[in-house]
Amino acid sequence: MEIPSDIGNLSNLSYLTLENNKLTGGIPASRQTLNKLLLLSLEGNLLTGEVPFWLFDFKHLWYLSLARNNLTWNNNMKIVPKCMLSKLFLRSCGLHGEIPEWISTQMNLNSLDLSMNKLHGPFPQWLTEFHFLSLLILSQNKFSGSLPTALFRSSQLYTLALSHNNFSGELPENIGDAKLLRLLMLDWNNFYGPIPQSISQISGLELLDLSRNRLSGNIFPVFDHQVNLLYADFSSNQFSGEVPTTFPPNIQTLALGGNKFSEALPSNLTKLRNLQRLELQDNNISGELPSSLLQISYLQVLNLRNNFLQGSIPKTLSNLKNLRILDLSSNNLTGEIPIEFLNNLTGMIEAPPNRTSQTSNFVTAKSFTNGFYSTEYEVNELIVNWKKSKQGLSSHNLDMYFLLDLSNNQLSSEIPASLGALKALKMLNLSYNKLSSKIPTSLGDLQNVEGLDLSHNKLSGPIPAAFTKLQQLTTLDVSNNELTGRIPIGGQMNAMADPNFYANNSGWCGFQIRVSCPGDLPPAPKLQEHDNKEKPWILLEAIGIGYPIGFLLTIGNIFLAGYFNPSPPSNSCRRRHHPHRLIKQRI
Questions:
Q1: How far is CA 555 from the centre of its chain?
Q2: Most-buried pick from 340, 453, 464, 548 (CB within 10 A)?
C-alpha cells in the first residue's frame, strides 16, 4: 500500500505519523500542500526513491523522521531549509560522503540520528556548537579521527552512540564533563590508551560500552556508589592486571572478556551483589573458583571460559539458584562434578514463564507535545559454544537459553544422575574430560536439550534407550569413548545419523554407523519383490504350455504302446480301422 495522495487535501494537518507500517512507493508530491505541518514521521516503512527536497520547505516543521526505509539521498541536491528542526532522524536513508552541510544550519537540534549510512570524514566541529543537543547517534558509518574535547562540554548531552566507526586516538580526559550522559556507546572503534578517570563522575550513566577497541591499562576508574551504572562492557580490549571491582554495587551486567586479566578472582567481587551477568572469558585468570561467588545470588550468566582456573568445582555454586548459563569450559578443573552442585540449580530445572531481563536492552526516549519517540539499543551478544561452533546469543532474548558447559577440563569419575533434573537445559557439553562409567539413563529426561556432547571421555556401556525421548535433540556427539551395544532407534535418534559423532568407540552397532546388530534380519532385496510380482504370470504360462504338451505325450505313449505290443496278425487290421475303440478299451 502506498501513501494516499489525497492526504495533501488536509491543509490544516499539523501532526502526521505513519510509522511502522508497510507503506511502499515514494513520498507523494501532494504532501507539499501541508503548509501547517509541525511533525512528520514516516519511520519504519518500505518507502523507496529519493528524499524530496521540498520536505524542508515547511516553515513550521520541527520534527522529521524518515528512518528505517529504503530511501536514497541525492548529494547533488542543494537544500536551503526554511524550517528550524529540533529532531531529525535519517537512520538508514542512503546518506553517503560527509554529513550534508545544511544540517549545520539547524542550530536548535536536540536529537540527531544519522546511523546506518555511509557517511565518512572526521567528527564535525560544528556539532559541538549545538548547545541543545541531547541525543546524537552516528553509529554504523565510516567516521574517523579523534573525538573533540568540546563534544563533552555540552550541558545537555544525554545519549551519545558512535559505535561501529573508525574513530581513533585516546578518549578525551574531560569525558566526565558531560554530566547528564545516560548512555555512552563507543564500541567497535580504534580508541586506545587508558579509560579517563573522569568517566566515573557521570552519576546518571546507565549504559557504558567501550568494547572492541584497543584500550589498555590496569587501573580502572573508581565509580561512586551513587552512580546508576547498570551495564558496562569493556570486552575485547587489552586491559591487564587483576579483575577490577571498582564498579557501583547496583551494576547488573559486567563484561570483561577477551582481555589480559590475570591472577585469581578477587574476593571482593562479591560486593557487586546485584550482578546478573558476569563475563570473564578469554583471559589469563588463575587460581581456584572462590566459594564466595554464591553471595552474588542474582547471577544468571557466569562465563569463565578459556582461563587457567584449577581445583574442583565448589559445591557452594549450587546456591546460585538463578543461574541459567554456566560456562567453565577450557580450564584446568579437576575432581568430580559435585552432586550438590546440580541439585539446587533451580534456574536450570524449569524455565519460569514470561521471564524478562532488566538488562537485555535499554531504551532512551524523549517526549514532545502530543507525541513520543524512542530509540532501542541492543547490547552485545553473549558468545558461547553452541552445537559444535561459537555462536552469539542475542541479549534481547537471552532468557530463552539454558546452557551448562564443563568441557575441556580434567573432570573425572562418573556423570551424576542428578544432571537429568536440569530439564530446562538446551545445551549440555561435558566433552574432553576424563569421565567414566555408564551414561546415566536420567539424561533422557532432558526434555528441552538440543545439543548434547559427551565426546572424548572414557564412558562405557550402551547409549541409554531413554535417549529416544529427547524430542528436541538436533546434535549428539558421543565419539571417542568406550561405548558398546546397540545404538537406540526411534524418535530423534533416527536423525542422529552422522557416523563421525559415534566414531572411535568399539563393539557397538546400529544403522546410524552402518553396522548391523546381531539378530537383525537383512531386508528383503528389491529383486525378490519383483520376482513375486511376476510369479502368477509365470505360473499361468507354465500351465498354458504344459497342458497340451502333456496331452500330446500321453497320446504318443498310447500309440507307441499299441504298435509295439505283440499281438496276433489277424487283429492288426482291426486296430487300424477302429482306433477310438482300442483307446477306450485301454483307458
A1: 89
A2: 453
| Percent of the chain as helix, strand, coil, to the nearest 5 | 25, 25, 45
Per DSSP, which regions of 242-381 are E strands? 253-255, 260-264, 277-279, 284-288, 301-303, 308-311, 325-327, 332-335, 361-368, 371-378
Residues 6+ apart with CB under 8 A from 67: 43, 44, 89, 90, 91, 92, 93, 113
Nearest to 324 by CA among 294, 345, 355: 345
Using CA of residue 357, residue 360, residue 364, residue 367, what is the dihedral sign? negative
Give the contacts of 474 (CB within 8 A, at least 6 positions apart): 387, 450, 451, 492, 495
Task: Of 425, 276, 247, give the one whose Cα is nearest residue 357.
Answer: 276
SS3 (DSSP) at 27 = coil
d(CA 180, CA 212): 25
* pTM, to two decimals: 0.84
Rounded average pLDDT over 424-443: 97
Q: Do 245 and 221 touch, CB atoms closer than 8 A?
A: no
Q: Report the C-alpha gap between 47 and 52 in whole angstroms.
A: 12
- The per-residue pLDDT for 292 is 87
Write the pLDDT tens digit of every residue in 16-67. Answer: 999 999 999 998 887 778 889 999 999 999 999 999 998 999 999 999 999 9
What span, in angstroms and rounded, lies between the C-alpha atoms of 401 and 300? Answer: 11
Residue that has been written with the C-alpha cell 536529537 in this structure: 111
Cell readout for 401 is 537459553
List the beta strands (DSSP E) in 389-540. Answer: 389-393, 403-405, 410-414, 427-429, 434-438, 451-453, 458-461, 475-477, 482-483, 485-486, 508-509
Q: How far apart are CA 514 and CA 497, in angstroms?
A: 9
Confidence class for position 376, pLDDT limits 50, 70, 90? low
Q: What string of DSSP letters covers 161-223?
A: E--SSEEEEEPPGGGGG-TT--EEE--SSEEEEPPPGGGGG-TT--EEE--SSEEEES-----
Model pLDDT for residues 438-481, shown as the tens digit of each residue: 999 999 999 999 999 999 999 999 999 999 999 999 999 999 99
The continuous run of DSSP H or E covering 544 comes out as helix 526-564
CB atoms inside a 10 Å sphere around CB 356: 8
**Cα–Cα distance for residue pair 331/305, rounded to 1 Å:** 7
CA–CA dist 557, 167 (Å, integer): 113
Q: Supply 319's cell numbers.
A: 546456591
